[in-house]
Amino acid sequence: MPAAMNGNRTVQSASPDVGSTPGQITLGGGQSSGAQTEAMKQVLGVIDKKVRNMEKKKGKLDDYQAKKNKGERLNQDQLDALTKYQEVTNNLEFARELQKSFLALGQDIQKAVKKAVRREQLQREEAEQKRLKTVLELQFLLDRLGEDSVRQELRQGAAGGGTPSLLTDSELTTLDELYKLVGPERDQNTRLSDQYEEASQHLMDLLEGKDKAVAGTTYKALKDSLDRVLLSGYFDKAQSHQNGVCEEAVVESAKEQTVDQGQHF
């Protein structure tokens, strides 16, 4: 992080079918969507079987009725069965309506599951984006803390600007050590993935603000220090510090030179 240091700083949405394996999305009543769709599949299976059986039964009764209409003689069992023709017809119609209603309900559940999956995906993406933004902010802060002018202002307060001290010397020292951990210089004797696996763990612990010892302090204390600087709005100012010189001061100096030149002529 100090200016003398080198090295670069790096640091399913498919809609399930009815009867799919129970998933993680939960709908009303605390039941998993997978359990609901599986239950719906079982209900539809029962209704489908009932409809098929009644269709077969009505088919036989239709044959009996056709034979009777042709004047063929029926046995007593066939005649008794024909007495229930209207009852079977009504039951079959009711079962078909029930089947249609449950199919519509199953489609509604699938739509609800799809929306829940999409909503959870968006929430997950939003959380990941927020986490990535925090990583970028921390990297930016650690990089800028390598500039002498920035360190001085954060330690002593911006001259004439009324900016209070944001970091102590000891905090800057520990942040320097953190900088080495999360953005180590490339070691050619170590595999890149192995080297940055450890660095990424340090960064993860920092993001979570773990109360775990590191660099003579804790990740929590380091994160508190960095958050303090971020929340101060110090880096949101219009001026930027480059090469230890305040850009705002350079602009003011240029204005003064222009005025002097105008008076000379």
TrEMBL record:
Alphabetical keyword list: Coiled coil
Database matches in InterPro entries: Caprin, Caprin-1_dimer
Coiled coil: 47-74, 110-139
Residues in Caprin-1 dimerization domain copies: 118-236
Superkingdom of origin organism: Eukaryota
GO MF, one example: RNA binding
Pfam families, per the entry: Caprin-1_dimer
Gene Ontology CC annotation, any one: cytoplasm
Span list, region Disordered: 1-36
Similarity comment: Belongs to the caprin family.
Protein known as: Cell cycle associated protein 1b
Organism: Salmo trutta
Lineage: Eukaryota, Metazoa, Chordata, Craniata, Vertebrata
